[in-house]
Amino acid sequence: MNPKGKVALLTGGARIGQVVGHSLAERGCDLALVYRNSREAAEASAKAAISAGVRAITVRADVADEDQITAAVKETHRALGHIDILLNMASIYQSTPHPNEADWSNTIDANARSVFLFSTAVAPIMKQNGGGRIINFADWLPVSGRPRYRGFVPYYSSKATVIALTESLALELAPEILVNAIAPGPILEPPDLTSEENTEVINATPLRRWGGAPEIAKTVLFLVDSDFITGECIRVDGGRHLY
């Protein structure tokens, strides 16, 4: 699919999402940027997209709220006319050494249930327009088949669910809609990372560096462009899973 003239709905548009949105806009793709708290980032991305010559809107929605998800999809369809690409990037990442029911529900809702709700809300619109692309965001650990780090039961489980959703939705929505996932590894350094922790990550990554957000944008564009890949989860981790 050529993204020029298409409409992409992005959730979780801060940091990496901003770079992905900019890459799509440069290819002539209109944007709907769904945010909950990152209003400034969403508005900055919309402004940059408009400067690049495409249409862009921002829509506030809590991705854990089904009614707000439905409203965001309807608003995007109304304002931009169609939806051709869905990027389920919204996610929460936090350590929960002794998770309670709230930790579990909050993480599953934000990271996995939102993928299901957005995908099922957007799919009929895509099919009416001849098809589309859904790209979800998992994590390099569950796609590698191992949790590795203690204290992340809800997070790991939620991202493993995203992989299962990607595979099952790819089957259900074929042939009109292609559904794939990206599993990032060391892409952006966390702001609170110590020098010792940074060295540990670099030493455990065969390519010996952090990837940077443009690597995710390249993978998104690859999956948008492809017409014969569906049900896949692509690790973008610099070989981190090999150690």
Protein architecture, described:
The protein has 243 residues and is an alpha/beta fold. The chain has a single domain, classed as NAD(P)-binding Rossmann-like Domain (Rossmann fold), CATH 3.40.50. The chain has eight helices and seven strands; from the N terminus they run E-H-E-H-E-H-E-H-E-H-H-E-H-H-E. Strand 1, helix 1 and strand 2 form a beta-alpha-beta unit. The radius of gyration is 17 Å and the shape is globular.
In brief:
The protein is an alpha/beta fold. The chain has helices at 16-26, 39-51, 66-80, 101-128, 140-144, 153-173, 195-203, 213-225; strands at 7-11, 30-35, 56-60, 85-88, 132-137, 177-184, 233-236.
